[in-house]
Amino acid sequence: MRPLLRRLLPALCSAAARALLARRAVPMALRPAVGAARAGVDARSAAPEHDGLENIQQKKIFKEDMEKTQQSEEPCAADSVDSLMAEMPFVDTDIEDEHAMHATSELSIRKKRKRTTGREIEEGTERKKKKNKQYQPNYFISLPITNPKITGSIQAVQDAIVQKDQRLSKAMVRSGSLHVTMFVMHLSSEEEISIAVGALSDSKVFVDDLLKGKRVDLSFQGIDHFRNQVGFVNLAENDHTALLKEIAETMKKIFQEKGIMAGEERAFKPHLTFMKLSKSTELRKQVKKIDSSLYEDFKNHYFGDEILHRFDLCSMLKKKQPNGYYYCESSIVFGEKQAAEPDDAELVSLSKRLVENAVLKAVQQYLEETQNKSRQSDGSPAKTEEAASGSKNESDNDNSK
Which helix (H) or strand (E) element contains residue 179? Predict the structure, then answer.
């Protein structure tokens, strides 16, 4: 801005000087005429020496005015320019400085925006972490393993490993908990649990349609691991395994259509976990990796076949059942089941019925003894018979529930 003002101010000074001169010169030029008008005819009759004196004075004044005009037309001094510029606003601001300030401002804005963006990214990451924590799986669809041959063979492998490394006893999965996970999900409320129960019930029709009455035998053979942290039995690849994968995908879609956060991004790999370090925090501090040589003798071992018979909606967090199996919200049953292999639900139901029958028999026996004593004391056989008849009817009703 300063160079620009330096170029413009001389012209401004010259124009101002001309305006000042014109203001002065016009009255001077008009002064003789005004005098003549006042004097009238007397002025024309004045003496010649007076005319000459006026002419000399006018010439002198004109000469002085010309000198002033010449001086005013000279360029303004640098000092005067600087003094004028000093009075102007933003005098210390140069155009280049202005652009620099703008660029600095732009840079500052970009940095601020970058910092803000970074903060937004951090906040987004925090929200994502919170969301991931909030939506950690807490339920899963389980295919329970109930074939005694499979569970017995796995127990033998576990015993052999523990004999070589006692610390790994804490990593072993109980035989009652053995299962194949079809897919996992997060259920945050009782309402969502109810929706999941409904989705599992709806899945039965589609599973039956895929099975088409066929019996599905799942063969378990060989041992493998996940990053030496989890030991599992492989599910042999065959047509039945492919069908199981198709069933898992179909069921997962049904749950997702119900609004359930189900499934994972990675591909479904059916496996039977029998050992994992994550079961014990203390163990993970002691053992970083499971030595595969501990189960070298069983790497190609055939464990047996499991007939596909039931799927359960199980909780990861609720208290397990007495036999070690997970808390089950609901189940769907299909296909055939060998009579020699009763499942856990059947065993629990049978045990419950046996206990109820035993309790009823004990109550009935107690009532009969009480009635006999009462009959002997009051000698009223009719009342005794009525009481016995009433207790018998009550026992029949309980048995029919």
Answer: strand 179-186
CA atoms of 292 and 75, how far apart (whole Å): 99
> What is the side-by-side strand order in the sheet with 230-235?
271-276, 230-235, 217-226, 302-307
pTM over 0.90: no
Please give the order of strands across the beta sheet that includes 327-333.
Answer: 261-262, 179-186, 139-144, 310-315, 327-333
**pLDDT tens-digit map of 270-301:** 999 999 999 888 888 899 999 999 999 999 99
Cβ-count burial 244-261 (b if 16+ within 10 Å, e if not)? beebbeebbebbeeeebe
Q: From the CB of residue 349, how many other CB atoms can be counted at a distance below 10 Å?
A: 12
Looking at 243-295, which runs of residues are DSSP E strands?
261-262, 271-276
Per residue in 92-141, pLDDT (tens digit) is 333 333 333 344 444 444 544 545 555 555 555 555 555 455 568 999 99
Strands (E) across 208-325 are located at 217-226, 230-235, 261-262, 271-276, 302-307, 310-315
